[in-house]
Amino acid sequence: MGIKDRGKLKWQGAFFMPEHVKLLRDMHTDYHRISKPILDEYQIEEYENKICYAMEFVLSVKVTVWEDGFEKEYIGKVCRLDEIHKVIYLKLHNEEGYIMRIKFDTIVGVVVLE
Fold this sequence. Notes:
Layout: H1 18-31, H2 41-56, E1 60-67, E2 70-82, E3 87-92, E4 99-103, E5 107-113
Antiparallel strand pairs: 1-2, 1-5, 2-3, 3-4
Protein name: YolD-like family protein
Pfam family, one: YolD
């Protein structure tokens, strides 16, 4: 009589509860989180000048935004600038007609694409 081997079953992981899987995912995302960069007055003024320049000459910009511990980049054209509420409206290139609202205090980088 031969030995009955379970094959790949013995190498598969144990059963994980959905709560355990969620905790593992949350732990993984928390590990990759970064703190918000602190910008000085000169950097903020430089970003504002770049945004105004791009808006005046209808140039594309790449805006880096800090959202919930992660940096996201958006590429588009500045279509409106609201100085009272400190918001810029960016028309994204990849999505036809979609205008994104970005607050000044979340911006951590601006690059003008020519």
